[in-house]
Design brief:
CATH superfamily: Glutaredoxin
Number of strands: 12
Shape: globular
Strand content: 25-35%
Helix content: 25-40%
Radius of gyration: 20 Å
Number of helices: 6
Number of domains: 1
């Protein structure tokens, strides 16, 4: 019992550390949005910055609780539906300017690297933006990377419940603009003072936990990959857990 408690505490500490690092990285990326153009074709997005790449092993492996969300096809899909396959899972959203498309591009490269073994892998994208990311929106987005990628969405409550086990943190930040009117333009004194207003109610970015999670065919969390991890590294980890499962 003591060993199980210690292992659980170690995992929780690791996930909390990952969440803090991920939120810092995501916040830094968002601060550059207005000066960094979004790639015209997200499937060919440039690789994410290597400086933050790398992996952390979960030791001992941690069995994850099951959850059920709505897939990009509109069907209910559970984590347990992927038993027998390795799962690469990413939390993100379709309006993400760089981290999410960069990571999904690496998923595409990992799938290519795996060859026939990719049939034993589920590449899963879980949206943290249920307001805008409907199943149809997610389906169109993932089709730009790979038609076999699986998109999931659910209520904010459901995401926060299941995300606790992954150290998931996400928060929407609405874009605002300073609107200044001179007396000559406005015609009266009240408009001399600038005021801040929302551009659009659905015009916002989402700070979110950004590592990828490698889950083995038995539903155990095995590795966490940080932003910038290359596709060949992802593929090597997948091959390792598949080989251990077959042994």
């Amino acid at each position: 019992m003591l060993n199980q408690t210690t292992s659980r505490n170690n995992l929780n500490n690791l996930l909390i550390a990952v969440a803090i690092i991920a939120v810092f990285i995501t916040g830094f990326a968002i601060s550059r949005l207005l000066t960094t153009p979004r790639p015209q074709t997200v499937a060919d997005a440039p690789e994410a910055p290597a400086v933050t790449g790398g992996a952390a092993m979960v030791n001992p492996p941690h069995q994850l609780q099951d959850f059920t969300l709505t897939s990009h096809t509109g069907e209910a899909v559970s984590l347990s539906d992927f038993r027998g396959k390795a799962v690469l899972l990413l939390f993100g959203y379709t309006n993400c300017p760089d981290v999410c498309p960069g990571t999904l591009a690496e998923y595409k490269r990992a799938k290519r690297e795996l060859g026939a073994q990719a049939d034993d892998v589920a590449f899963v994208f879980v949206s943290v933006d249920s307001k805008r990311d409907t199943p149809d929106v997610i389906a169109a987005y993932l089709a730009q990377f790979d038609a076999d990628f699986i998109g999931l969405t659910g209520s904010e409550e459901a995401l926060r419940t299941l995300g606790a086990e992954y150290g998931l943190v996400f928060e929407a930040n609405t874009v605002t603009v300073e609107d200044h009117h001179s007396e000559a333009e406005a015609g009266h004194d009240d408009h001399e003072h600038g005021h801040t207003e929302n551009i659009e109610s659905d015009n916002y970015f989402v700070n979110h936990t950004s590592p990828s999670f490698l889950i083995d065919p038995d539903g155990y969390l095995r590795l966490l990959y940080f932003v910038g991890t290359r596709g060949n590294t992802l593929a090597a980890g997948v091959q390792q857990v598949l080989m251990e499962h077959e042994a």
